[in-house]
Amino acid sequence: MIDTLFNDINILYLIYIMPFVTQLGIPLGITFYIMYIGSTITDLSTLISFILTLSICFITANIIAYLIGKKYGNKPLKYIEKKFSVEKSIKKSKQLISNNAIFSIFFTRTIFLGGAPIINYLLGIYNYSKKKFLFYVSLAEILFVTIFSTIGYLFSDMWEILSLLLEDISYAITLLILLGIIVGITYYKNNDSEK
Predict the structure, then answer these.
(1) Interval 156-171: pLDDT, tens
(2) Do the beta carbons of residue 28 and residue 114 sit within 8 Å?
(3) Other C-beta atoms within 10 Å of 38: how many?
(4) What residues contact residue 25 under an 8 Å CB cut-off, 6+ apart?
């Protein structure tokens, strides 16, 4: 029963649904599956077809999250502003996200994958340009799918080891960034209190 449930064709169907589920903020380890499918592909034309179809799924899921943020995100945000008196913080975050949208999009599609849904919703809430969003998300998702499926394709015998290594590197980079943010916030607060 389990063998038939997790055969290659079922994983292939599952992987096309995963981009939509991940937009809910549910981590599914999709990178692992992309590398696995890449390792099972035997010719270049099939690899290119897989990259394009999966990229379209990712792009569509990102657009849906962006549109949900744009249409429905302002009400909860206004409630949070009033309830917790965080207008100043929300204004700063809006400016930070708008100024760093390109970096945020690429960073959450290559290193910190769990942040992608949040960025999509926030860019929608803050009315980031639809055309720019579509362009940068398309580039980032195609890059993401191409990198990991090609790694699986090229290193089909060692894809599992590479997957674990890339996951460890991703965690290390995320921890370094979080540490940098904590140090930056501490430094900023200390400088504010001295003034």
Answers:
(1) 776 666 666 666 666 6
(2) no
(3) 24
(4) 114, 117, 118
